[in-house]
Amino acid sequence: MTRALVASARRIAPLAWPVFVGQLSVLAFSTVDTVLVARHGAADLAALAVGTAAYVTTFIGFMGVVLALGPIVGQLHGAGRDTDAGRQLHQAVWIAIALSFAGSLLLVFPGPFLALAQLSPPVEAKARAYLLALAFSLPASLLFAAYRGFNVAVSRPKAVMALQLGGLALKLPLSAALIFGLPGLGLPALGVLGCGIATGIAMWAQALGAWIVLRRDPHYARFAIAGRGLDAPERRALAAQLRLGLPMGAAILVEVSGFTFMAVFIARFGTTPVGGHQIAANLVSMLYMVPLALANGTATLVAQRIGAGDLRDAQRLGWHGLAIGALLAALMGGALYFARATVVGLYTRDAAVAAAALPLLAWVALFHLADATQTVAAFVLRAWRVAVVPLLVNAGALWGVGLLGGYLLAFDRFGITPAALRGARGFWLAATLGLVLAALAQALILARRRRVRISPAPAG
Fold first, then answer.
1. Which of 5, 61, 120, 384 would give a disulfide with 253, using CB separation of 3.0 to 4.6 Å?
2. What sign for the dihedral angle of Cα 165, 169, 174, 175?
């Protein structure tokens, strides 16, 4: 690496590693559930896979809207307008509350989503119960997303990491107790429903912790966040956040739904294929935490440098973050590929499920490299407040090529799909190709940004 690249890495690392640890703890929520439920029963694992797909599709899109707070606050903080940055957090809370109502309603009535999976009645009943529990956790999750977006934007990711680790510490024993039960205490085994209840308790504990930190930590005094209640909705500030947040949320929704809907369609092949997919998806999600953390750290610095008026440094940091992300992704994806048999063995003792998971991991190295590249590029573009074009790119590449192409391959709709590419493997091949196209297109969009004009962030 060049000296300039190393210098950028040293600037990004202090912001990226706490995000990585925090996001890894969030991923551990689903990892713990996957491992525990896999030992509880195949039907519960299938319900978890489909229920998680429905929840993530709902939550991620709305979270993306809330996280538009980040680029706006980052630019304000870089410009020294900390009081205005604090006002933006109040407006993001209103957005989170409004989205919570819509999202919870979707989770309470998930019929259209579950119909796509064509589950057996017992598995569908388990998935419905799981989603009902998660409906009560969604408001806390979105409120915490506002806290997270604000803190990352002002270079304080450790305040988020601490609460995320605390949530995990609470989640671990709760999940184990609720999934398998505590007969001595009269607590029945709830299976996948126990996962949802444990997640709800942990998320509300995190949201309460965030509120306490914002009120009592003197670091936030400069932002004038606490001491006056919640600001009334401000049309100009809400419009600015939604103008950026809606395409951001839609782009993230396209990306995630293109992947999570794979689980819905793969569920049609039975509990064993969807169980194998769930293991592979969880492993890919673990790898994703590294470029996600790097993307957050890079985008934070880019937004702050834009706010400070140093556009040259902002451009340099963006490209260096992209290069570092691609290098790390290649190393990690390759390592998982060579260790795939051992890693899958840690998830399940079921030989059939393991056999279903192993062929999917053959695509991991290229899948992860493309995913990491497009993720860092997308975050850097959002720091420049460019969100609409990446949305169109994601829709074409991830839905058109990835999801639609995977459906045609997996179900052999044209009668020409080789046997080796039918079923879950067809979806993974198409998803990989879609990510490669998205990565190339977003990197090209970033490369074309030469003369940039940045509108001032609203005072709120």
1. 61
2. positive
The one-letter amino acid code at 431 reads: A
Give the global pTM. Answer: 0.83
> What DSSP string runs through 401-412?
IIIIHHHHHHTT
Where in the sequence is the domain holding 216, given as residue range(s)?
A: 3-447
Q: Which residues, 6+ apart, have CB-to-CB distance to 388 below 8 Å?
A: 247
Residue 266 CA to residue 3 CA, distance in Å, equals 47
pLDDT tens column, 175-190: 999 988 887 777 888 8
Q: Which amino acid is at 116?
A: L
CB count within 10 Å of CB 419 equals 8
| pLDDT at residue 1, as a whole number | 55
Q: Assess if residue 456 is contained within a domain.
A: no
In a domain, 457, yes or no: no
Q: Which residue has the tokens 């979270």?
A: 63
Q: Are 92 and 63 in contact (CB under 8 A)?
A: no
Residue 239 lies in a domain: yes
Quick check: is 176 in a domain? yes
d(C-alpha 292, C-alpha 157), whole Å: 13
CA angle at residue 247 from 378 to 160, to 5 degrees?
65
Q: Strands of 408-454 (E only): list them.
A: none
Domain count within the chain: 1
- Where is 356: in which H helix or E strand? helix 351-357
